[in-house]
Amino acid sequence: MTANTIAFDDTHFYSSGGHPEKKLIAIRGDGVGDVTATHIEWTVKKGTSYVPSPLVSGERLYLANDRGVATCLRKSDGEVLWQERLGGEFTASPVLAGGRVYLTNETGTTYVFSDSDEYELLAENPLDGAVLSTLTAVGDRIYLRSETDLYCIVAGVGAESQLASEPADAAAR
Q1: CA–CA separation, 70 vs 54, rounded Å?
Q2: How far apart are CA 93 and CA 52, in angstroms?
Q3: CA 74 to CA 134: how far, in whole Å?
Q4: Can you spell out the DSSP letters for 19-86?
Q5: By C-alpha distance, which of 17, 99, 25 is closest to 65?
Q6: C-alpha to C-alpha distance for 45 and 55, rounded to whole angstroms
Q7: What is the pTM of this model?
Q8: Residues 88-140: pLDDT tens digits?
């Protein structure tokens, strides 16, 4: 059983679930009918998620488990490239934008790290309020909803790697 969305690329589906046993499976997408015995390429049981969806980027697959561990896997074989414990618990899924991965915990802190084979934390951006939803990136803006507010985050002037918050329209709150 799973509570998230399956990730995919041109050749595979990546499904992470949590009941009765937490695991992530990579499934070749060229089969028909019951492909359980013939199309599962690999399975990973450690660091998998129940609620946050996996994220595909190039040859990497990102996961955030519900208890705050972020993992980057090699898509071809499920090998762990890196794994880091972040603060808090996660319901939101990782999002890729501008060569960076964004991941927000339930207390409103967004972790920003490089889309790469090695873990490189670029920023931690705390906001007020609980966050259970996944942020979205549109153009040069990131939109994030907490339980009480809607935020629009844009790159600071002259500081590409820093984010600044600007108030959302009052009608959107």
Answers
A1: 10
A2: 4
A3: 23
A4: SSS-EEEEEES---S--TTTSEEEEE-SS--SSSPPEEETTEEEEE-TTSEEEEEETTT--EEEEEEP
A5: 17
A6: 17
A7: 0.85
A8: 999 999 999 999 999 999 999 999 999 999 999 999 999 989 999 999 999 88
Instruction: Dig out the tokens for 118 from the structure.
Output: 């090695």
Contact of 46 with 23, CB cutoff 8 Å: no
Q: What confidence tens digit (pLDDT) does each residue in 22-81 have? A: 888 999 999 999 998 999 999 998 878 888 999 999 999 999 988 899 999 999 999 999
Tokens of 34: 């019951």
Cα(161)–Cα(123) distance, integer angstroms: 8
Determine the longest span between alpha carbons in the chain, in angstroms: 54
